[in-house]
Amino acid sequence: MGDSGTAIDGAVRDWGTLRERYCARMQRGAALAKDKVVAPDDVVALLEAVIEPGDRLCIEGNNQKHADFLAECLAEVSPERVHDLHIIQSNIALAPHLDVFERGIAERLDFCYSGPQGLRLSRLVKEGRLKVGAIHTYLELYGRYFCDLTPNVSFIAADAADHEGNLYTGPNTEDTPAIVEATAFKSGILIAQVNRIVDRVPRVDVPGDWVSFVVEAPRPYYIEPIFTRDPAAITEVQILMAMMVIRGIYEKYGVARLNHGIGFDTAAIELILPTYAADLGLRGKICKYMSVNPCPTLIPAIESGFVEGIHCAGSELGMENYVSERSDVFFTGRDGSMRSNRIFCQIAGHYSDLFIGSTLQIDLEGNSSTATLSRITGFGGAPNFGSESRARRHGSESWLMAGREAHRGNGMPRGRKLVVQIVESFREGLSSTFVERLDAWKLQESFGLPLPPVMVYGDDLTHIVTEEGIANLLLCDGPEEREQAIRGVAGYTEVGMARDPEMVRRLRAKGAVSYPEDLGVDKRLATRDLLAARSIKDLVRWSGGLYDPPARFRNW
């Protein structure tokens, strides 16, 4: 039988309720639209017409582009008409994302990352005005869109739309495919905020028949250059750590496929590839394929022939022309602009040979977290990138070498993904990175979370790099050696000062703790002279003028 009329236990079930609700919503919204296009002044009324109390609602708001105009309009709807919403979105970055909780429009939140809104978020939780379902990783939340958290209504952002609703996302596709597919193919309402409406889009990224309504926003969507790191701010300590990473990890394991973090520590590594790593004869042997955003600090490594391929989760402001002119390296469309995709980038990074990133705290088991006592921040993509890929089946030399170190001939031969945390022993404000117990435990108690919010679990971590040296946890036998290896690179922190010198000496002899002299790293070379580019202006020169940095990064 079709959409209606099937009898279950004597009751007749209607199998088309979602479709019927979709049609009713579309009919109400159509009164405010011309074809699919809605005027900006009518958007609040549109939202009050198509959103129903208790709906699950997704607002595209990831690391970079945001459906900010639609988010602002949602915060203006009447709580009498729209209330009890369940917000399911990856990033809580803008004030309107939390205004809806203060105004009683939404009550429950499932998310991945909150960033600067973390303090306000924690206050709303304490006041009982916001209930947190869970803090997810990106892939975890996207997965739930297709399981138990499918959106009833979604807001997305795109560069352009035509009059039939076909969308062009340009280089910042990012989360859009996951949100669109989950919504459009489960009878949900999809509303797109676009920068401009054109007769013909340069590339169809979202077919028009998946889109319910289109709004030409009064201003371009909000986007930030959050992956631009000025080489002028890179310190000699970071250069020393970068040298140790190249000699102690990249060269040793022959790491060719990897995911780089986006901080200054990994930017330092990228900027000494054309100098330090090239002098070691490592061109063509390491850092060939990367899963990372198009960070400007990668330009010298690309131009000097180190990096051959990059898949990106999103784009970066100012890199558009450079990426377009380097289509052998980046994934680009027929129109010349980059095609990013956060899910595919996460998958590529998960199955690569190495993840390297930074954190705020590490405990004596190697568990790490960016959670602090007063904030709920979340982790973004780091937990997926920074976890052992147990489903991997294909071999590579670095993966197999790490597996041999981990298993040492015991049981079934297995490979091992390298998961590296690179940190200085003290953070800003002289807070110790190394702690006996993570703040995450207190955060769990304060906010009633089911688990302490750990970013990378200790049993996934293989190496810790500090200004003092490298702890190779694969070579540690048992928790006591593991603890002492961590203490052995924890510098002058309380954790580091409590090391057992004799055990650290034995760990150093077996390679579980290595200092610069053990790795053949000459600390006298750790100066800014080693950087291939020492300023944003140098990066522009390396790009042949293709990189066009935002005004805030120009001082010339």
Automatic annotation (TrEMBL):
Gene3D superfamilies registered for this protein in UniProt: Glutaconate Coenzyme A-transferase
Organism the protein comes from: Pseudazoarcus pumilus
Protein name in the entry: Malonate decarboxylase subunit alpha
Gene Ontology MF term list: transferase activity
Pfam families assigned to the protein according to its UniProt record, in alphabetical order: Mal_decarbox_Al (PF16957)
InterPro entries referenced in this protein's UniProt entry, alphabetically: MadA (IPR005777), NagB/RpiA_transferase-like (IPR037171)
Gene: mdcA
Bilayer-crossing regions: none
The organism's place on the tree of life at top rank: Bacteria
